[in-house]
Fold these 3 entries.
Entry 1:
Amino acid sequence: MALYLRKQQLPSAPLSCCFILLAATATCAAAGEVGGPNAHATVAIPAANHYSPLSQITAENVSTLRAAWQFETGPGGLQTTPLFMDGVLYVATPDQRVIALDAAAGTRKWEYVPLEVNLQPVRGLTIWQTGDERVLFTSHGTKLTALDPANGQPINRFGNGGSIDIRENLGASPESIGAWLTSPGVIYRDVIIIGFRTGESRPAAPGAVRAYDVRTGELRWRFDFIPAAGAPGSETWPTPALATAGGANNWAGMTLDAARGIVFVPTGSAVDDFYGGDRTGANLFANSLVALDAASGRYLWHFQTVHHDIWDRDLPTAPVLLSVLRDGERIDAVAQGTKQGLVFLFERATGAPLFPIEERAVPPSDVPGEMAWPTQPFPTAPAPAARQWLTADDLTVRTPAAAAAVRAQFESLISAGPYTPLSIGKQTIVFPGFDGGMEWGGAAADPDQGVLYVNTNDVPWTGGLQAYDPATASSFAEQIYMTNCASCHGPDRAGSPPAFPSLVGIFNRRSEHDVINSIARGQGRMPGFPQLPAPLVDMLVNYLASADSAQREPGTVVAAPTASVQPPQYQFTGYRKFVDPDGYPAVTPPWGTLNAIDMNTGDYLWKIPLGEYPALVAQGQPDTGSENYGGPILTAGGVLFIGATVYDRQLRAFDPNTGALLWQADLPYAGTATPLTYMAQGRQYVVIATSGQRDPAGPQGSAYVAFALTKQSAGRTLP
Ligand code: HEC
């Protein structure tokens, strides 16, 4: 039997919490713990579907949608999908404050200002409700905090005065690791289930998913993604590595099938991201979709999407629940998108693949000690949503100069298809790039039709390795830098601006206090390094302050590196986008796409470029598609909404049947977040978080922006 409600079965009004919430980042378990048809109904539309049964806005009237209000939230990045309940929107700010807004007026009701914060994203909040009892969960710094949604006050009986420190209960001393909650947890009955983000270099926290009592914060269960010696999965690691391994964590959010009591948890790669010589083996349960019993954390099944990952191919998004028709039978399925641009479809209860998955041979590694896995899994359908193998035919022809420069650079690169290991001394094409393919915004699904709507990036990046012998370091500080910072800011500190800033001359731009704060807490896609003790941070700051570290005498190692900061033997040379001399992607467009995939058949219904670059439009080159982050939402009114594009700052509405553009509106900053739709005072609103962080050349700031039909056009469609 299908778990999903037919549209006509939905109550018309008032809509309860979960009927309105629809983003992956906004979950609710209002009636999940009580029986009866309503309880079933409430959990029948899983939040990660990005699907809303609201239908006041339709394909016919969406063109009359107008800006309703805008709420400014200050400088920084914003990736939050708001959470809606009973006329109130709960949102986060770039500095991790929580604000309750009147959903119709966009005015502040209360604000919670946490004491401990960092500048990492808060992709959403979670609310738990039973009877009159409600708890709103937010994350800031290393804390998960329970608030009273009525007034924003911490609920003292939860954890320690309202918060728990998510670095605790991970089997390592909390001070020695970083752990932050960037995606909100999911609620099942009376627990909140969370993953976490950790560092990309050693020592990183070992990945685990944990369930806490929503009232007290007491730990109810934990599942470790890096198995204990002897436990299932441990045979895929060298035994010594198990004790010190980190990563394989869930940072992208997870998806609950409440009716079955299954939580689907996607995991990331093991640390170090790019060299795995000390972790030979498939490395379970890294890069896996893991199905757990939501009540107990008991293992049910898993599928590993990348064996022995040495490309940082984390599973980037919570999977989507939908049902598909097979031989006339409706099957409840879970669809997982990847950074590689692939979609895997499984039967929910058993994990049986619904399209055959082939293990295909991939190239070996030529790096000493590295044992790249000989095969990787590819679904036979649907086809990849982004290009997989860059050839000379795909190189840009945007201008003769760009074409010539890119062709010349291409000659020096290795391009040998998906899962080609990085090499020493030469850059290797990673296509789609390190950010995906699919990213944290995730996909929307039509629960009745089995159609998946997903945006992807379609641009190449490059990466490489270099040998690093700590004994040759000119200083211990350099070793700390090489271990922790070089992968993003480059061995030469020049970074790969604008995405990864240069640290050369950093103190001309930033105070020492700022730099120390960045190191401790991280910001944006930079994880924090709270595990670095103060004396090491001091050394690092001195190292960055030295005008040219290369002038230092080599061989003057000031202190022996401790085990915890031992750098890998082969260092990543930094994330580089493969771009032409003007900064545009080195491939032919489209550079970003929006796709409708019929998961019944695996066929694409349509595929269109998503977004454009205003400067290229001005030169007569529209519709190139754009780098994009944040996912789509689908409504029962027959409208697909998506922002996501970085440079043109648009919110768009598409016809889900054809991909035709129905409407678009200017945003103050890029809408690089997944939107939300809700009903307030009789009108359907669409709200999206916008921010300028990803486009340093564009306007800087952040704001929530809401759109609604004009009173007249809303009135015409109301019964
Ligand atoms: C995983 C990638 C990554 C790693 C590892 C990393 N950073 Fe960063 N760092 C970034 C990014 C991305 C930014 C820009 C963040 C933003 O846009 O807010 C940044 C910003 C900074 C800034 C502020 C730069 C400015 O111009 O304001 C400093 C300082 C900094 N990093 C220092 C470090 C140090 C020191 C380390 C090592 C301890 C480190 N970073 C490790 C990615 C990284």
Entry 2:
Amino acid sequence: MSYREDIAPLLKKDCVSCHGGQIGLYLDSYGTLLSGSSWGRVVIPGDTSNSTLLQRIKGEIQPRMPLNRPSMSLDEIALIETWIREGAANN
Ligand code: HEC
């Protein structure tokens, strides 16, 4: 799984319109994705059960993301889950 080829395009399509400036969580670069928000990290490399970004796109933490829009597909969620499980590399 590749950040550049698999993950960044998904976040750009579904998340960056909101998380690219207006809200205190920036999902538009690897560095900001991994550093999270002022409330803490949202991706913990290798730890899918504590990565709140994953829980948000699955709707396990409300409000589900992307906010007020159709959920990501199961395939898209699986890509992100695998990438985090494999260590969330900047590749
Ligand atoms: C329409 C605007 C919008 C879109 C699109 C959107 N978000 Fe959000 N997001 C928000 C808002 C607003 C909050 C704060 C909500 C709250 O906690 O009440 C938030 C909160 C979050 C949080 C929690 C932040 C934290 O510090 O705990 C995560 C994680 C998150 N979004 C991820 C995503 C992801 C991943 C996507 C794309 C799949 C996405 N969001 C798309 C508006 C959006």
Entry 3:
Amino acid sequence: MFHWLEKNPFFFSVGVFVVIAFAGLIEILPNFAEASRPVLGLKPYTVLELAGKEVYKKDHCIACHSQLIRPFKSETDRYGMYSLSGEYAYDRPFLWGSKRTGPDLHRVGNYRTTDWHENHMWDPTSVVPQSIMPAYKHHFTNIADIDTAYAEAFTVKTVFSTPYDVEGGVKLGTLDEAKAAALTEAKVIAADMKNQNVKDAVTRGEIPEIVALIAYMHRLK
Ligand code: HEC
């Protein structure tokens, strides 16, 4: 029936454009809906959490983990409340993922602790004997990039009016202030860890990637 279309490159291209534009609209339109406004009490990411999110992106955790709990009983029983679009309001980009080799991580902050993550990232089989997740030992020596995380926060504040520096919210301030705040946050996490290299680095004022990543994991709830 549509053979004439396949034989006509011009109309075929127009058809393809229309179909893709429609699909694009379907993806974009929900962003303008009320349900996509930030859920009540949602705060923007702190600079340390953003640095952890960078580690998550850089090391491609998304290749095995989703961050989107679907409204199925099997998932809500395991992970908790299904995900709402308004929870991702400050996620740029969101990391929903589609590959579910490992568990969903959208609410992992509710049930995993700092020391659990420390053991798990160093050697996943030490806490989950059958685990096929790779170890990420380099997170314990690599230093997190706080400057870039600050630039990211500053950009979304300026371009998308993400509410930093508002009453009762997350303070961003200057780069130096943000670095000091990230270090304060990092110290709390490092205090619960046993890796001496990590503790020493934080005492020196450097933040290893594992600390930022754990801050990010705790934020997912
Ligand atoms: C090759 C696939 C793969 C990659 C890549 C991967 N994971 Fe996993 N992950 C798994 C599997 C499988 C499990 C389940 C077994 C386990 O707990 O180790 C898991 C479990 C987890 C858990 C425990 C979740 C829970 O509910 O118990 C966390 C947290 C986690 N991964 C974080 C990460 C982070 C952070 C990264 C990136 C630095 C990452 N994973 C990369 C496969 C992967």
